[in-house]
Amino acid sequence: MSRAFVKETDAETIELPERPVSEHPNFVTAEGLTAIERERDRYAAAYADALQQGDKAAIAAAQRELRYWTARRTSAQLIASPNRSEPGRRAGVAIAEAVHFGATVTVRRDDGRTQRFRIVGEDEAEPSRGTLSHVSPLARALFGKTVGDVANVAGGTAEILKIE
Fold it and tell me: Which of 21, 23, 69, 84 sits CB 3.0–4.6 Å from 39 for a disulfide?
């Protein structure tokens, strides 16, 4: 077959593997939903720029990220945090009765360490910044428990000191 009948762009298309998407429900906080939308918009702009530049590697990378963030936005389930106040607490500071999605939890580990984290969606979780995915073993062990309860996690225990 003559090269005259072959599109060069077809031969030069770069295909990248898809980013894996979690099988868990895509629960998000309001901040998480905003972050997903920001990423989707960022990659839409990157895709447009890559097209304008004719950069096939950048086009492929931006397309893959855009597909991922569009899928995450489509499947996002916004979970509103309960906002109730306990008598005697500062105005505007909510307290929860049981650990739930969106709660900020303070625990004491059996080795004496105290940790504080907020339970959030998978895409917004960053343990080094104090956020933990709702599907993590620790979060799953704590769901539904109240202050004073102890959860068994990773061969140790975590006592709930505070839930906000």
Answer: 69
